[in-house]
Amino acid sequence: MADTPHVKIGLWDYVGLTPPPFGHAMRQFWSFDPKYINLNHGSFGAPPTPVQGAANVLADIIEENPDKFFRIDWYPLLSKVRARLAAFLGARTEEIVLVNNATVAAGIVLRNFVWREGDVLVGATTTYKGVYKNMEHIHDTNPQLTIANFDLDFPKSNDEILKDFRAHLRALPRAKASQANPDPKVVCVLDSIVSNPGILMPWREMVKICREENVYSVVDAAHSIGQEVGLDLEAIQPDFWFSNCHKWLYAKRSCAVLYVPKRNQHIIRTGFPTSHQYNSDGSQVKSDWMSKPNTNGDDWAVPFSWPGTMDFVPYLSINAALDFRQWAGGEEAINTYCRDLAREGGQRAAEILGTRVIDESGDGAQTLNMVNVELPLRDVPANKLDFANDVLRDRLLLEHQAYASHFYHNKAFWVRFSAQIYNELSDFEKMAEVFLKVCEEIKQAIREDVKSSPQS
Q1: Contacts of 134 (CB under 8 A, 6+ apart)
Q2: The domain containing residue 343 runs over which residues?
Q3: Angle value at C-alpha 86, between 5 and 306, nearest 5 degrees
């Protein structure tokens, strides 16, 4: 197998050509239905067609000789992707591994801690449900553990968040030292960018607060890579950090990066599922079939390279994704366009809907490439919340061929618009008109139901 050029095939048709301007001219590099308006890139991502092409070529190469790929070629190729990602994130290669997705990464980190009486696990009321369910299950299987959630209701300023966050950590019920657990630990799961609402958190400062309060920071950065420019994990020093590469970075779904600095690698003794290289005494077991050249001190990462037979193409598609981003204009240009469009589009949608954006900072400090706009659905009865969400989903996808994530938060319905380089302001305007129409249908249906109910 050649070095790595096959993972870039699919891009060569565009190399040397001037990329089109951002906006609808960029849609030619995505496989969307021409009638579909996608303002929900943040949920599942969408690889550009050149990245899909590169992935398809790689899949064909694997099938030419699966044994050669898995036994000889796989680990060296993976190592090169990890090195490139590490440079992108301001980290060391030996501290970077790839896993299926951010929820898997959360499970790996949290399930590797040994939980004892007096330990505390901190989440938030806005923690992504899949991650929070991991926390919940850990508590179910370790009832001696305490879960202490940090309440977050938006709108809320960064100054208020930081003040309340520190107060929350200081108020935790830390148990007194005991023989069984002389040094109870506190582990805090925090978001870099909340999923719903799509809010940029002051997470760097929150990591610093965790360090000052002797708390492990586990940063769910599912939306960060490809959306936050200039990440420098060595400087920020989170204890654990993970992000999806198939969302904003344009890789093929699904794949995620997990960062564990050397100081904490003794905690993470196994990936998920536990691999061939696991040993209960903590030493590495050399596989009898996978080729591993000199790992140069990379032994901790080796077990993550083989979680069992699976589709490894998404992991290697990261190369093609990074190549496409460079060709399209680079990180600064991509994210400046998306951020500016999100802010402008959010304000325009709020005007059409007659509502407001959730980021009231004035300078857009909490808004990157996702913007949250309130929907005109105030005072929906509690027993109609699911109905409203279901109608929004079905009408948008089945009738209007358009979508943006919608959710209920702090006694109101919101829509989270994701801005991408293939979007323009007109997408926000059209989508807002659709939401306006569907919201009126929902309100009318609720009014008719109330009139026809026996109590009325």
Answers
A1: 103, 106, 107, 110, 111
A2: 331-452
A3: 70
Question: Same structural domain for residues 77 and 179?
Answer: yes
Domain shared by 122 and 241, yes or no: yes
Alpha carbons 95 and 222: distance in angstroms, whole number? 18
Both 306 and 350 in one domain: the answer is no
**CB–CB of 453/384 below 8 Å?**
no
Cα–Cα dist 22/15, whole Å: 17
How far apart, in whole angstroms, are the C-alpha atoms of residue 28 and residue 16? 17
Quickly count: other Cβ atoms within 10 Å of residue 66's Cβ.
10
**Which DSSP letter does residue 395 get?**
I
Other CB atoms within a 10 A radius of the CB of residue 229 amount to: 14
Q: What percent of the chain has pLDDT over 90?
A: 80
pLDDT digits (tens, 9 = 90+) for 39-89: 999 999 999 999 999 999 999 999 999 999 999 999 999 999 999 999 999
Of 319, 340, 367, the residue at which a domain comes to its end is 319
Specify burial of residue 391 (Cβ count, 10 A radius: 0-12, 13-18, 19+). middle
Q: Is there a single domain that holds both residue 127 and residue 276?
A: yes
Domain count, the chain: 2
Average pLDDT of span 308-319: 93
Instruction: Give the H or E element holding residue 76.
Output: helix 74-89
Under the phi-then-psi rule, with left for phi > 0, alpha for psi from -120 to 50, and beta for the rest, what region is 98? beta
**Dist. CA 456–CA 448, nearest whole Å:** 11
